[in-house]
Amino acid sequence: MQALANKVAIVTGASSGIGLAAAQLFAAEGAQVVLWARRPEPLAAAAAGIRAQGGMAIALAGDVCDEAFARALVELATSRFGGLDVAFNNAGGLGPLTATADVTLADWEDALRVNLTSAFLGAKYQIPAMLRRKGGSLVFTSTFVGYTAGMPNMAAYAASKSGLVGLTQALAAELGPRGVRVNALLPGGTDTPMGRVVASSPEAVAYVQGLHALKRLAQPAEIARAALFLASDASSFTTGTALLVDGGVSINRS
User: Fold this and answer.
1) Active-site residue list
2) For 176-211, what is each residue's pLDDT tens digit?
3) Which CATH class is domain 8-245?
């Protein structure tokens, strides 16, 4: 049986990396998916690829930090597919990778806007749609950085992504009595375009791999499978959780 049969799911950051892998997996598991990303061309290609495999997918490109767009994304899901059951709020960015004293206020605020405010805006409009269905699953992509480990020159990223854990817990307590589960997914190092910005040379990749107990990076499909668990009824008694899918980077000391 398909894990998301007859479900409607929004996936943000869906044109590449974890978001693309999750959108493809959700569709393969029976979901009707609504994809978001900033760049129209790769987003359209992602949706077309899902449809070519027999899945159901539509796409809307825009600014996930724009409140009107966050509302429009949910309206598209409800108008085309009849409602909303799952939202994987995965979009985000690294922010400034520099010493904290050199981070400009504009760059700091942009990191918060992209990683935290966008998730709030998504949830603001996703929640009422889920409540109309008497339940649902919200999933936010956070990170181990700033949660179980500190990394230099990543203060804006760590702070903005850590805020998602607090948002997750507050929403889980608020919405649990009404049947909506809320969880955060915390990946470790993953072989994605964004990850390659941090590890941009063979030496850097080897170093990052060595930080993990498994001594390798994740593939996006591995993180997508964890997102599927949180999105589906397989995690029906899981809410308010910061789920580490990090290859042991949080506990490794060797």
Assistant:
1) 157
2) 999 999 999 999 999 988 777 777 788 888 998 999
3) alpha beta
